[in-house]
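Hey,

The postdoc asked me to send both predictions to you directly instead of through the lab channel. I've kept everything plain text so nothing gets mangled by the mail client. Protein one:
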Amino acid sequence: MNILIIGKSKAALNFSRYLKILKIKSKIIPYRELKKYKDHLTSNKIEKYCAVFILTRDEDIIPTYKRYLKGLKNKRIFHFSGSVYHKCITSIHPIFSFPDKPIRNKDFKNIIFTSENPEKVKKTIPWFKNKIIKINKKDKIYYHSLLTIYFSFPLIIKRIIEKEMKKFNIPRNYLHNLLKKKIENKNSNITGVLARNDKKIISKHLKSLKKTKYRGIYKEILKIWRRYENN
């Protein structure tokens, strides 16, 4: 078996390493160097690969397919995006953020993927043993939006507030460890003024934040929290 990977992203490098452990050969072509490899991307040469993975930025996936792979008879073309859909490219989206350093083989095997067509994945690349959950193509953007909120928004808020809390000489590590314990505790609940629905204190909070950029964050999350509690 031989796999062609287009792109040199963190996902591409981790996937290439994983294939090596499985003793599957792979060739990486960096996205920015595609023009240099134009001869290598002719149909007769690409057909020799048992699968092609376009692991570029989301916005480059479909243009790459249209420009270099559209004439392929072998339709074993995949991508790792959770937001892109194309009928000729099968999505296998890892619910995982790849770090700069390659992850362990064990960790890669534990990644859960989603796909519009898990059956096709299992049929065309049977060596891919990760768990794959089926997702409807019409739900992809909504699903991807929720993952972005879940994995990125808390970190953004955390970094903003930790930076601001330096004014009060509260150690960042102390706050980090408290939050970590709270998150790791599966039975942990929302506490403080939100849990008590202390309207007077909440009103004072909003007043104190009136001239800051944090008021919008507080107000919008409070609004979402109230809707959630009322459902």
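Protein two:
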Amino acid sequence: MERNRKETIRAKIELPPDDPQHEQFLFVKNTRGFSINAELLRVLIKEEYDRLHKVPFPIDDALAKEIEKFMNGHPELGFRNLEDFLRSAARRQLAYGQK
């Protein structure tokens, strides 16, 4: 692929009206606009790339132990592991953090 050529990648998401994420997507789009949706997509791509390349989050042991204690006390939140928790926290910060 030619590197000096400007290239735009367009992503299409198919969410049927009966899919719970359909309404969630419309809510986020209407609340935050498309720019935040594009940014969230970038975060998800980066997360998947890092996951596939096994790039861990830099976190100290004390904080990791505190998070694991919290996750064990709240299994209803459905976090699979520490990395899942941290990725969720990063997504929430991007979506709902300071403006």
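Summary for protein two, as requested: The two ends are 37 Å apart (CA to CA).

Thanks,
C.
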